[in-house]
Amino acid sequence: VLFSCCLFQKEKESLSEELHELKKENKLLKEKNTLASKKKEQYECEIKRLNKALQDALKIECSSFPEDCLGKSELECRHKEMRTEMEVLKQQVQIYEEDFKKERSDRERLNQEKETLQQIIQTSQSELNRLNSQIKACQMEKEKLEKQLKQMYFPICNCGLNFHLRDPCTLADPGTAQDLHKHPPDYQWYAPDQFPPDVQHKANGFSSEKKVNQ
């Protein structure tokens, strides 16, 4: 569970970094899109201005000078220059329109990827929360089992006395019981009134017999 939790955490961090990069790229595309839109408007205004200037020039030339005075060659030359300039501007506008469409398509793609990544992050976060809950539940269960195990080997005494219990492993050794029979505990150091009940009873009986024999 811990390993899966670490994997989801790393995947979440990686997706967050990728989402951050996509946001930066999306911001740059928006800035480029705004700039391209402004340039497109400027070129469209320039084309309109040139068209109007061309029409005004043609009207003035036609009204002020007879065609035979200026000569057809000069008029055609001027018209050709104006048309060439207009074609160049139209091509530039077309290029900016294509760039604008491409950037808009890229922006839509980035938005779609951003939404997908956000969904993945939300799913990963939910899975991470679930794993954290499982880890917490496992830790609580572990503490509960450890407490139960401790109570099994070290039961609580309510009589106010503290007993030192031997290790269950030593109590299970059959040789220990045999040693106790061969070498009984020595109670010489006890005061008479501090003997255990069974030993105190034997001591009292032994004293009575000794007095009778005397």
Itemize the secondary structure elements and their pairings.
Elements (H helix, E strand, L loop, with lengths): L1 H63 L2 H4 L1 H82 L14 H4 L2 H9 L14 H17 L1
Descriptive overview:
With 214 residues, the chain is mainly alpha-helical. The chain folds into two domains: 2-153; 168-213, no CATH class. The chain is built from six helices and no strands. It has helices at 2-64, 67-70, 72-153, 168-171, 174-182, 197-213. Helix 1 (2-64) runs antiparallel to helix 3 (72-153).
Mean pLDDT: 69
Instruction: Determine the structural class based on helices, strands and strand pairing.
Output: mainly alpha
Number of strands: 0
Separate helix tally: 6
Which stretches are poorly predicted, pLDDT < 50 over at least 5 residues? Answer: 158-165, 167-172, 187-192
Strand content: under 5%
N- to C-terminal separation? Answer: 81 Å
Rounded to an integer in angstroms, the radius of gyration calculated over CA atoms is 51 Å
Number of domains: 2
* Topology order in helix (H) and strand (E) letters: HHHHHH
Principal-axis shape: rod-shaped
Q: Which terms summarize this structure?
A:
214 residues; mainly alpha; 6 helices; 0% strand; rod-shaped
